[in-house]
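help with these C-alpha cells:
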Amino acid sequence: MSQEDVDVVLLGFPLFEAEDFEGLTRLWHPDGRVTAQPDWPEPGPFEGRDAVIEQFRRLASDMGEHRFRHVEVVAEGDGRVVVSFVWEVQGAGSGAAVASKMAGAYRVEEGRIVEANFRWTVEEALEVAGLGR
C-alpha cells in the first residue's frame, strides 16, 4: 500500500463535504463500485463511476449540512484502505441532526478508487476488505 493510495481515499472526504462532484469523479475509476450496510435505505451496489457519483449527489441533496469528523486510517495493505469516521448530517427538510459512527473499506488501483464498502463498524469494514485484525 502506498501513501498515495491513502491520500486518494482521504481526499474524498473533503470533496464530498464541499459537494465537489467533479473532483470526486476524478478520484473514481470508471468501473467503480459502492455498497452500504445491508440495512441502509439504499445499500446498492452502485456499479460504474456514473452510478457512484449519482448516488453521492442524491445523498448530498438530502442533507442541509454534512461533515466528517474523526477520520482515521485504521488499516491498509494489498491495495486496501480501511477508514473510520463520524458522519454528521442535518436533514435538508427536517433539520434533524444525526451523527453516525461508520467505517469504509476502499480498494485503490492506479491512483483511483475502484471500490468502497461502507459499514457500521470497523470490524465489518476490515472483514469486507480482507484485513481482519
Summary: The mean pLDDT is 92. Residues 39 and 119 are 10 Å apart (CA to CA). The longest helix spans residues 3-17.
